[in-house]
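Q: Entry one of two.
A:
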Amino acid sequence: MSIFQWSVSRCLRKGCSFFLSFFLSFFLSFFLSDMADDALFEFLHMEIVAHVYKEQATREDIDKERVTCVSTLEVMGFRVGQGLVERFTKDCPTFKDDLDVMKFLCKDFWSTIFKKQIDNLRTNHQGTYVLQDNKFALLTQLSSGKQYLEEAPKYLAFSCGLIRGALSNLGLESVVTAEVSLMPSCKFQVVIQKL
């Protein structure tokens, strides 16, 4: 058992999703400082997803299991996104509108975490944004094509939470969903909730 597997399993067995989120934030900070390889983050992410699903596999209701796992991963991503965006924006000027926030998210935030910008940002100028990444880093380890298409959503839950947490800390409450039609390309739909 590797140190990652041991850390993740210990945190999840004890119900320490907050500690695991802190560990992920710390790891991403280390990762983002160019001291670590890209593969480490991808490996950690895959181990967390596998462990969350393995822990829930003992349950009998498979639909409830899937919802619980996706929810757990999304909450972890939310906490990590909040922490990272706070760190990234401490020296930035304030944003003038929602579109500026989304541009920051697509260029600076995304490229700092995934080492590339979002490939396409579309909006209807009414609070709905579609972010398209044609080669999403957390899906590239899975087979290209349609073979693992039904497995893709569990690998996107953390990223949806990451986006939602970042936007939340920037003052925008949102609903984030992900869609995969062909691996490793994915689209994140962000709907800003007007208060």
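Q: Entry two of two.
A:
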Amino acid sequence: MIMNVLNNSLLMFLKSVRNHEIYSYGLSIYTKTDQRHKCDYSMGSLMKRTLLRLVTGSRSRYQSTATVMKEMNEEYQRQVLTQEEVTSFNNDGYLVLRNFLTEEEKQNVKKWGDEIQALPETANKWFSYFETVNGEKTLCRTENFIPYHEGMRNLIENKITSCISDCFDEPSCLFKEKVNYKLPNDGAFPPHQDAPAYVTFDQKLHITAMVAIDEMTVENGCLELVSGRHKEGVLRQEESGNIHPDVVETMDWKSAPCEAGSIMIFNAFVPHRSAKNMTNKSRRVFYLTFNAVSDGGYLRNAYYGHKRKMFPPEAERISGVDYSEGAKIYNLATPITNKKD
């Protein structure tokens, strides 16, 4: 009986946060617009305690969403990270977790990366983006794949979401997901910050979990990052969206090699770059980006709806149309073409 009351209260609470009709299965939530994607807003005992107070009257049932969210954040309890790990993340802006995933999960990540890479270019489903390498059209990114891949979706919604929530120090939810493919002799990514690409919904902060599908080495172009500079906000940029060379020269860049299956968490304001893959093997990476639930709620569907309109994958582009305006938001520091070939 009490669980039914809590479930109903959870629905009432989320309806005040998001302007969608939602469906409940246990304590998991499906949006009406995307029933295949499950996002866990249960938040364990924390949410249950908060909702119980709302239902039993120890707090006003109709108090503002901001008040409830503030109370939840004040009571948030870490789920998977240590205090030392959270402190390191806050100080440096990034954190490498080499054994966060089990050996089985690491093997699954590689298998799932292969499966997602093999998805055929298809309109109105996942997003496949291409670059030109030695005159040939080459897949460089896949996005919007979790509605079509149950294994990766489950890993993200459970274990990885808990990790990111610990970094936010409050409940979080997935904002966007992608795979970057750095194939043999494939190009570099110049120095940039991710935050300028996440301005559509006027949110404060995003945190990304990078999951290495393949081993990342200096030779194949692992990430290079700058500790502490995330605290300065958006840095001076070139028109391309890259960090201005004068600023880059002042930075202390550190390479971050990672074994396959490792996870690196980084703040969207952290300066980062990667060199060309100089090996004969691929260097593929999942990038899973989250926002705090209190910072706009679940916006993944809205994000991909807007991106599909402003900077669609090539399979959905109209010949002769220039998508340069959308590229100013969605194509910063990437080799993806702005026109349909």
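A: Comment on entry two: The CA atoms of residues 161 and 302 lie 19 Å apart. The longest strand covers residues 172-182.
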